[in-house]
Each structure stands twice: as C-alpha cells, then as structure tokens.
Amino acid sequence: MSSGATAQDKIWQAKEQGHEAQYIREKEKAQYGVLRSQLDEETRKTEQAEAKDIEKEKEREFEGGFGGQEDLEDRYATTSGEH
C-alpha cells in the first residue's frame, strides 16, 4: 500500500482517530487533576479562614459590659460630667 492508499483506508483512519481521542482524554484528565487540586487548596484555605473568624466571634460573644454595649466608647470620659 502506498501512503496515499493508507490515508484512504477506513480501518487505519479509525485507529488513528482512536489514538487521538485517547491522547486528548489523557490531557484533559491531567488538566482536571490540576484544577481539582487548586480548588481543593482554595477550599482548604477558605475553611481555615472561616474557622478563624468563628473563633474570633466566639471570643467576642462574652458579654463583659452592660446589655451588649461593651464595644461602645465613652465620648464624655474626659468631661466634668456636665453634659
């Protein structure tokens, strides 16, 4: 068979297309693996940040003042008391 006849052979074409499809699937799997690992890393970082935020909120839940106003500042702390 000459090279022109090989290109016209249906069995050869199907075999080559199969090899190309397999190569593409392998490349896609590799790319999906990279994306998945990046997404997992971002998810882990987000979860850690959320856990830290929750811990900070738990620390502030203790009510050390009166009626939940412990974070307010006293604007008249330096005055003589005559408002």
Nutshell version of this structure?
This protein has 2 helices and no strands. The protein is mostly helical.
Describe this structure in words.
This protein has 83 residues and is mainly α. The protein is built from two helices and no strands. The longest helix has 51 residues, at 10-60. It is rod-shaped. The termini are far apart. The model has no long low-confidence stretch (mean pLDDT 80).
Helices and strands in order, then pairings?
Blueprint: H1 3-8, H2 10-60
Rounded to the nearest angstrom, the radius of gyration is: 34 Å
Q: How widely separated are the two ends?
A: 107 Å
Order of helices and strands: HH
Q: Residue-averaged pLDDT, rounded?
A: 80
Shape: rod-shaped
Strand content: under 5%
Q: Count of helical segments? A: 2
Give the uncertain stretches in residue-range form.
none
Structural class designation = mainly alpha
Question: Strand tally, please?
Answer: 0
Largest sheet: none
| Proportion in helices | 55-70%
Based on the model shown, name its key terms:
83 residues; rod-shaped
